[in-house]
Amino acid sequence: MLKAAREAFAEAGYDRTSVRQVAAAAGVDTALVHHYFGTKEQLFQAVVEFPVDLPTTLARVADGPVGELGQRLVDTFLEAWEHPVSGPALEALIRGALAHRVYGRLIREFFTVHIVRSVGVRLEGVVPTDEVPTRANFVASQLLGLAVVRYLLRFEPMASLPRDVVAATVAPTVQRYLTEEIDALG
Amino acid sequence: MLKAAREAFAEAGYDRTSVRQVAAAAGVDTALVHHYFGTKEQLFQAVVEFPVDLPTTLARVADGPVGELGQRLVDTFLEAWEHPVSGPALEALIRGALAHRVYGRLIREFFTVHIVRSVGVRLEGVVPTDEVPTRANFVASQLLGLAVVRYLLRFEPMASLPRDVVAATVAPTVQRYLTEEIDALG
Predict the structure, then answer these.
(1) pLDDT at B8
(2) Fewest CB within 10 A of the end CB: N or C in chain B?
């Protein structure tokens, strides 16, 4: 059922997906979906909380040289988007976030809270603490923009570039936002 | 009527806006809106083609030192987003693009065709010609991501940062994507 829901939300967006469609796609009764997941909103939340084990994943990103944080973060982000389970779930999350203020909150949490909490710890002593939330926002701007262009809007040639080419091109941007001196933020 | 339509699309997105709502907001009859603009889709296209005089704007961006293309492009982009007329129109454009494949095409056109055509000309002899479309996609990823985080999802502190701080932070990223050597693209 979650698989059917993930695909339905990713394909049609939150708004135009009904619990009935999800049930039909999963080959079960609508009542069964409601029984397990509650409302359509709760079903969506079950879907969007599923994609990645965030604490474990971000701990892995944080672990290693600070000078390669950008590379590890971009690699992990692209890997999650190209994974057959978490990819469609992340797509549903972003489409939902842009269609509904409620889901915008989920995305903000994903990026700001989780990245600041786990990766931000590694920035202590590297950049001023009060710059960390701002820097995390700039990281989010590059990563979300990459997801929008490569996976949602499917710009070419971006959508067809090998993952490692994308990662190598974007990693220095993310690294700069994380650890390099940025005069304007001072 | 266009003003009412712009605000309605930006607020509720393409899907959940009706011609009737637009007419009511503008204080006119629905038939009048249909008479001037045709279908809801045509109305939307009138709205999204309105925001910026692209050829003139991008000619201004292209004009000046190549080493400051990134700064001029980011300044112009942020200015358009913070302008009371073009800002809501751009928001409607992006929300529409993410909700409907049809409007995804409009956005791709906006970024790829227009930027490659006018700004790309300035890159002749600076970077290999066959890298220009790819570089334009990376520029789009940073600019669109910035719009999503600052204007659509309104992450804090990003949404409250002064425009010049945002521009100064992001301009080197855009400049690098435009003109600097990127090994992975070679």
Answers:
(1) 83
(2) C
Query: Residues B16-39: pLDDT tens digits?
Result: 789 999 999 999 999 999 999 888
Comparing A133 with B45, which gets the higher pLDDT?
A133
Q: Return the minimum-mean-pLDDT range out of A95-99, A118-122, A143-147.
A: A95-99
pTM of the model: 0.78
Cα distances from B145 to residues A46, A98, A149, B151, in angstroms, run: 26, 12, 9, 10
Average pLDDT, chain A: 87
Q: Which two tokens stand for residue A35?
A: 């029984």
Of residues B145, B155, B183, nearest to A145 (C-beta): B145
List, for residues A99-133, the tens digit of each pLDDT value: 776 567 666 766 676 677 788 889 999 999 999 99
- Tell me if the bond preceding A157 is cis, omega within 30° of 0: yes
Residue B170: predicted pLDDT: 98
* Residue B155 sits at the chain A interface (C-beta within 8 Å): yes
Q: What is the mean pLDDT of residues A6-23?
A: 81
In whole angstroms, what is the distance from residue B109 CA to residue B91 CA?
A: 16
Of the options 1.10.357.140, 3.40.710.10, 1.10.357.10, 3.40.50.300, the CATH number for the domain spanning B51-181: 1.10.357.10
By C-alpha distance, the chain B residue nearest A149 is: B141
Whether B13 and B97 have beta carbons less than 8 Å apart is answered as no
Which of 3.40.50.300, 3.40.720.10, 1.10.357.10, 1.20.1080.10 would CATH assign to domain A51-185?
1.10.357.10
Under CATH, what is the fold of the domain A2-46? Arc Repressor Mutant, subunit A (1.10.10)
Architecture of domain B2-45: Orthogonal Bundle (1.10)
- The answer to whether residues B40 and B18 touch, using CB atoms and an 8 Å cutoff, is yes
Position B106: which residue type? Answer: L
Domain-wise residue ranges, chain B: 2-45, 51-181
Residues of A with Cβ-Cβ distance to B108 under 8 angstroms: 153, 155
